[in-house]
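User: Predict the complex with NAP.
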Amino acid sequence: MAERAAIVTGASSGIGLAIVRVLGSEGHAVTMASRRPDKLREAVARLSSEGLEVHGVAANMSEEADIKRVVAEHHEHYGRLDVLVNNAGVGIGAPAGEIETKRLDMQLSVNLRATVLFYRECLEMLRAAGAEHSNAIVINMSSISGKRGQPWLSVYSATKAGIVGFTEAMNKELGSQGIKSTALCPAFVDTAMTDFAKEHVPAEKMIRPEDIAEAVRYLLKTSPPCVVPEIIFQRPDEAL
Ligand SMILES: NC(=O)c1ccc[n+]([C@@H]2O[C@H](COP(=O)([O-])OP(=O)(O)OC[C@H]3O[C@@H](n4cnc5c(N)ncnc54)[C@H](OP(=O)(O)O)[C@@H]3O)[C@@H](O)[C@H]2O)c1
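Assistant: Here is the predicted structure with NAP placed in the model:
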């Protein structure tokens, strides 16, 4: 059995990929879950060639059965779970009068519902890690849009605000069992998700995926009584 193990969703690119690198370098075996199998396979091969212990599971976070399969495969491979990173997410902009039900449902299910289901499915392993070392960590990817609603990204903002609220509730519910939850709330990060904005905000003016991943390294090193409910990452010209 691995000494420390983690699941990262949305692990095949951007912030999730950077977080897997940090977890791997801190001695964690990592199950990487994301949607497109080819892209995931390439990411897993790259990280394996860097010497990290990683296993890929292609899964759609909109599907409950896929989420159960990710957790079951992780358990089979690594037998324990010390860190869960609910990172997969999608943002689809639309004016309020033109929100399509299909896109509304997709954002609710990938950004919010999947996080709830992952907690439920992982709880037994997280409780075991919490009982062992009082430092089981769950990291939930919110956004600065979860702290201040964004026009035309209203559904995305609502899902990310939901993540902040759910994280707070999980700390109150599970904190005494050694399970600590943190919501990460970044402004623009230079990933594929922000390609649409790079005409107005150049990539070099955006936060780096590694900035977010280094926060995860910090969270791993906090002592058991230290709970960090949320971290906000903003750009110099974007005070909250
Ligand atoms: N970039 C930013 O400015 C920013 C700011 C605040 C918060 N965030 C949040 O950070 C998280 C990661 O985003 P990113 O910027 O790193 O973007 P990214 O590079 O596009 O990564 C998104 C990841 O999520 C996966 N994913 C998307 N839909 C999925 C689904 N239905 N099922 C399974 N996996 C799915 C993608 O896999 P596929 O490519 O195979 O779909 C990919 O691995 C998201 O939750 C996002 O909302 C991003």
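The mean pLDDT is 97.
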